[in-house]
Amino acid sequence: MKTIIIVIVIALIIIVPVTSTYNSIATLNQKVISSSSNIDTQLQRRSDLIPNLVSTVKGYAAQEKDIFTDVANARAKLSGAQGIQEKATADSELSQSLSRLLVVVERYPDLKSNQNFRDLSVALEGSENRISVARQDYNNAVNAYNTSIVKFPSNIVARIFGFTSKPYYKAAEGASEVPKVDFTK
Q1: I need a surface site. Which of 40, 69, 92, 138 has the fewest CB within 10 A?
Q2: Residue 166, in any domain of the structure
Q3: Consecutive sets of 10 residues in the chain, 185 residues long: mean pLDDT of each?
């Protein structure tokens, strides 16, 4: 009888911490997944605003056809992106295209005074801010998760159950460069 009790106590001493650690890692993993989904939601929100913005600008700047094509292509690339790094690259390309579009706006003072354009600009700026917050939340979640799976003793549980590190959301190469806009074409 004592042997059975000792075996049960030893089993509990092993099972309870392993279960607790597994649950903690699983919770952090779900936070990473949720944060990634929030980035997708905010990117989609911005993507949904873009056709309205482009349509408004087109009426004033029909001769800037290349910029509209670039924005449309970048938007399509973002819609089809898979994985966090591909999304980051496509997001960066779209941001650069939008920057070029907004430079075009500077050439048309009547457009800047158009209420519809101003409303869309405010909505787009809000979307950019939400995307920035979503990226930061994702990277914070990844940091917490990745840290938890390398710390002892949770690293043992992580290895046993196949938890692996997650990638951070990083801007694409060249994303920090200011886009070049050439209106001499």
Answers
A1: 69
A2: no
A3: 87 88 94 92 85 74 71 84 86 84 74 73 86 93 95 93 92 56 44
Is 35 among the domain residues?
A: yes
Predicted model pTM: 0.69
Number of domains, the chain: 1
Question: 177 in a domain, yes or no?
Answer: no
Q: Does any domain span residue 145?
A: yes
Beta strand spans in the chain (E) = none
Domain span at residue 20 reads 2-161
pLDDT the model gives residue 184: 45
Instruction: Quote the tokens at residue 62.
Output: 């029909």
**What are the tokens at 9?**
């106590």
Short-list 28, 131, 141, 146, CA closest to 87: 131
C-alpha separations of 121 from 37, 101, 105, 114 in Å: 24, 11, 11, 11
CA-based nearest residue to 87, from 78, 98, 96: 78
**Alpha-carbon span 159 to 146, nearest angstrom:** 12
Does residue 38 contact residue 137 with C-beta atoms inside 8 Å?
A: yes
